[in-house]
Amino acid sequence: MIAKVFRNFIARRTFAYKLRNKTMNMFSNFENFNAIRNKAESDRVKEKREHEILYFHKVDDPYSHLTIQFIEKLINEYSIKLSPILVGDENPETLHEPSLYHNYCLEDVKRIAPYYGVDFAGTSYPNKSLVNLANSILASVPSENFTEVAKLVSDFLWQNNKNELINLSRNYSSSLEKVKEILKEGNIKRDGSGYYFGSAFYYEKELYWGVDRLNHLEDRLTELGVKKTSSNEAIAPLMLSAPDELSSQTKLNLSYYPSLNSPYTFISAKRVKELSEKYPVNLITKPVLPMLMRMMTIPTFKAKYIISDAAREGRKYDYEMKSIFSPIGKPARKAYSLFPEINRLGKGFEYIDELLKASFQDGINIGEESFLENLISELGLKWKEVKKHLNTSAWKKILNENCEDMYRGNCWGVPSFKITDADGSNPYYVWGQDRIWLVKEEINKRLNS
Questions:
Q1: What string of H, E and C letters represents the secondary structure of 172-240?
Q2: b/e sequence 52-66, b meaning 16+ C-beta within 10 Å
């Protein structure tokens, strides 16, 4: 315990930047990514193993309800062996705000399920007795029947339909001791793969979370030549109505909550800029402190997934991470200290965007005064005037207020977004670069309803 506390303390220190940078660059590097993939495939061929995909299913995870709907289609489209693994509670090390997390997951799936053509009846989490009953059923289902039964179980569970679950349990049932044993084994396999939640796939050294990452798994399987059909349609396509560009005399407010040490924030910035140029919004930039500087801890296995996943997403959106220099500590504080004045001068988003590019593409220490001076000049501002605010403390209150505002929407991570009407009313919060499409859908809905 003492060693863990000390490790977490060190991770937040400025003097740990060399190790932090080395780790982040190792996990994000495209050559490393390809080397791992190639070796994994070489080993699989040598060992004459099938294309086996592990799927981690958690019965009371809203995202698992969504993902299980597409498993059968995945199996039909590709020559794979899918091995379902029943898992229990999330790894507690990875939950920074458990109550916010669970509330957000439920609300998020309620919002996005219709866009996938999926019915989701959940208005609250099922009670423990129903969860136990659902696990009892699935713990006794053979792998070949898992998908079919799991879809039924998920429907009945989120409908709070105890009678139908009891009917299923007449054919499938396990003792409480057996369920505990299976969930424990499932969690060990999940943790051993480097993941920590349900609704995830694991294939040959790489993880894919839910419907949001099925596209990456499909791309990999297609490259390996295991696609069985000629269909070009994605396994889980989104049914969207928002146009690429939108014109309106009415403007909405779009608040953007970035952090300077977030790889997901970096890969979102390009699309946020494009959205602000193509949609009628007032873009309001509200930076917050990185999680590590908010005294949160991120275990190494989660950091590895976040960096590697963000790098993969960045390549998807043609916004690749290259050389990384983490700004945690003094560099971030110095850069943040200038933000209030730069934002007052109308260049808040541009400033944050350039800082992110420096940290995640150019490997620059954004705390260097010479870099900041040059950046301010490139933004068309006067360094002599802006410099007066360097290392002052007014920014702390502003970032704290931004964080409190973000938390009001059940969001604690970045990037997060808030849409309001022009007068600041009717707030709609969204968390994650994965949901920029949902931001567009909400804007389109408000302006065209």
A1: CCCCHHHHHHHHHHHHHHHHHCCCCCCCEEEECCEEEECHHHHHHHHHHHHHCCCECCCCCCCCCCCCC
A2: ebbbbbbbbbbbbbb
> Do the domains 252-448 and 50-223 match in fold?
yes
Model confidence at 15, pLDDT cuts 50, 70, 90, reads very low
Going from the C-alpha of 101 to that of each of 3, 98, 260, the distances in angstroms are: 27, 5, 22
**Is the model's pLDDT at 8 over the cut of 50?**
no
With a threshold of 0.90, does the pTM exceed it? yes
Whether the Cβ atoms of residue 366 and residue 335 lie closer than 8 Å to each other: yes
Question: In this predicted structure, what is the pLDDT of residue 169?
Answer: 97
Residue 46 contacts by C-beta under 8 Å, 6 or more apart in sequence? none
- The pLDDT of residue 331: 97
Q: Could you tell me which of 424, 423, 425, 418 has the C-alpha nearest to residue 443?
A: 418
Strand 81-86, strand 52-57: pairing:
parallel
Length of the chain: 449
The residues that bridge with 200 in the sheet, in sequence order, are 56, 209
For residue 268, which of 247, 249, 253, 254 has the smallest C-alpha distance?
Answer: 254
> How many whole angstroms separate alpha carbon 217 and alpha carbon 227?
12
Taking alpha carbons only, the member of 412, 64, 77 closest to residue 217 is 77
252-448: in CATH 3.40.30.10:
yes
Instruction: Measure the CA–CA gap between 323 and 357, rounded to whole angstroms.
Output: 10
Residue 9 scores a pLDDT above 80: no
Please state which CATH class domain 50-223 belongs to. alpha beta
Percent of the chain with pLDDT over 70: 96
> How far does Cα 447 stand from its chain's mean position?
28
DSSP code for 413: S
The tens digit of pLDDT for each residue in 324-368 reads 999 999 999 999 999 999 999 999 999 999 999 999 999 999 999
Question: Taking the domains of the chain in order of start, what are their residue ranges?
Answer: 50-223, 252-448
Residues 34 and 319: beta-carbon distance below 8 Å:
no
Whether the CB-CB separation of 284 and 449 falls below 8 Å is answered with: no
- How many angstroms separate the CA atoms of 94 and 63, rounded? 17
Give the residue among 67, 83, 80 at the shortest CA–CA distance from 209.
Answer: 67
Q: Name residue 259's amino acid.
A: S
How many CA atoms within 13 Å lie on the side-chain side of 431? 20
